[in-house]
Give the backbone structure.
Amino acid sequence: MDETLLERFIQQYLLSQTQPQVSFTWHGGEPLLRPISFYEKALKLQQKYGKGYDIQNSLQTNGTLITDEWCRFFKENNFLVGVSIDGPQEFHDEYRRNAMGKPSFHQVMKGIDLLNKHGVEWNALAVVNDFNADYPLDFYHFFKEIGCRYIQFTPIV
């Protein structure tokens, strides 16, 4: 999305709102592949066109590209971050692999640890599948241990 389209999208999205609370959710592919400057531009456009609105931003990521720099940005701008993680390592790594086919659990946990370190509000986006569906207590205990306060389950069984 180039800057012209971004501006048009934000302006039109805000004009279409009927309530004072407006949510922008950045997702699709991997949104952290865009540089922080893209989101800084989006926030400036939200301020430009969003007078009188209570604007919230959230972002959904696989968590593997989260850095200290991203965490500072999220914290400073009050982003809610959704992280795709399917439970403990043996559950997560069954289907969540990186582009080279390698397990991604440790990369995702590094990202979650950084979010926790910086006090960034985050939640888990967990797929319930044929491999993990029979272990709800393992799910629960794992998410509690890593400091997750909210879990969104997507059933694919």
Q: What stands out?
A: Helices lie at 3-15, 36-49, 68-76, 89-95, 105-118, 136-145. The mean pLDDT is 95. The longest strand covers residues 54-61. The two ends are 34 Å apart (CA to CA).
